[in-house]
Amino acid sequence: MSDLLSAFLHLLLLFKLVAPVTFRHHRYDDLVRTLYKVHNQCPYVTRIYSIGRSVKGRHLYVLEFSDYPGIHEALEPEVKYVGNMHGDEVLGRELLLQLSEFLCEEFRNQNQRITRLIQETRIHILPSMNPDGYEAAANQGPKVPGHLVGRNNANEVDLNRNFPDLNTYFYYNEKHGGPNHHLPLPDNWESQVEPETEAVIRWMRSFNFVLSANLHGGAVVANYPYDKSPGHRFRNAHSTTNSPTPDDKLFQKLAKVYSYAHGWMHQGWNCGDYFPDGITNGASWYSLSKGMQDFNYLHTNCFEITLELSCNKFPRQEELQREWLGNREALIQFLEQVHHGIKGMVLDENHHNLTGAVISVSGINHDVTAGEQGDYFRLLLPGTYTVTATAPGFDPLTENVIVHPGKPTLVNFYLKRSITQVNPAKKAPGGGQGSRVKAQPRITKKKDGARKQPHRGPA
Ligand SMILES: [Zn+2]
């Protein structure tokens, strides 16, 4: 009898191992197991790394997909997804685990679209930015729709109000001159943020991310920057003002790509709210200071939007499959958006990388900076643009570029050393002649290079 029982239990266990419930909520241990399972199934195109620990010591694990995991290949863009920043908004976490399994499975099945995506893109997936908050929320379980615990981290801090506020700095620079991107962090910024926020900021600074989405819940809408309105301080917390970035049209397009590829987001009527096309400018919904998406745009090269994905922040397990089917295509299409606009190398005459060279687009007051290998990525809508590359000690170079709707236009810049700056004592006769230089302000050479150049405003 006991033999029979043990055989029965063994069978049960075996069945559980062979056929686990695919659509389920994952507690922390389960999440870690799932990430390693994906890595074991796709070892050559994945890597797991931790960007730090939560207040309670849980790892913030990232799963990376790439044909060369762990390596930045020049001209191959980096993209990220962040889930579960609010611990009680759990759908993003589950969708990112589903996405990880899907990418691996489809890669193994030689799905051409997914194989191409993994070969041409380096994808970083952080399923949970707030694992402590999640555990608190999961202990309470799904409730329809009630007050949930676990939104904040274990120190009761809302992580999406915890990033350094660079907006005020940018608004000042817009009027008075100063950098329009890569705005510096305040002194002692580490002491002003939570461990989870610090880990994410260091992560953002160590990869040249181009595109990102931050997955939330409580509404169904694709939200794009700015989240903070210029009058945030003076108006009440519920003030609503459209606060566009210099890349407003591009952000609207990115948000629409998600909402229209999503099963129902684009319909606009969701959770008792109405958002035309299923998108909204953050501040025109409600103004929010120290959020992550504004920080991405102002401190790094990364364009991030915030996706609100479910009315119910903690959906019941039975709803997860429908949610996955509603989001799957949108999650893939959004990743594919990183392959738009222009990209290329910025090199000197000896073909050495000009790391930190600045790429500016006439009419858009937001530059991007070339990465460590001298490669840059500038997302742009289709159209004709005047693009200038500058680097300290080199003559600026301007090109007219056509951006097509399909793949990105490749534009390499070969900069010539500026004669006036190499030998400032001698007056160079017509320095920079012969190159296709248009009138640009001289760059003052500074110790930490391109990041502190005066910006060129809209033409
Ligand atoms: Zn949220």
From TrEMBL:
It comes from Sciurus vulgaris. CDD domains: Peptidase_M14NE-CP-C_like. Residues 423-459 are annotated as: Disordered. Its main location: secreted. Its cofactor is Zn(2+). Residues 24-338 form the Peptidase M14 domain. One of its GO terms (cellular component) is extracellular space. One of its GO terms (biological process) is protein processing. The keyword RNA-binding does not apply. Belongs to the peptidase M14 family. Residues 1-20 form the signal peptide. Keywords: Carboxypeptidase, Glycoprotein, Hydrolase, Metal-binding, Metalloprotease, Protease, Secreted, Signal, Zinc. The active site is at E308 (proton donor/acceptor). This is Carboxypeptidase N subunit 1. It is found in: Secreted. The keyword Zinc applies. InterPro entries: CarboxyPept-like_regulatory, CARBOXYPEPT_ZN_1, CARBOXYPEPT_ZN_2, Peptidase_M14, Peptidase_M14_domain. GO terms for molecular function: metallocarboxypeptidase activity; zinc ion binding.
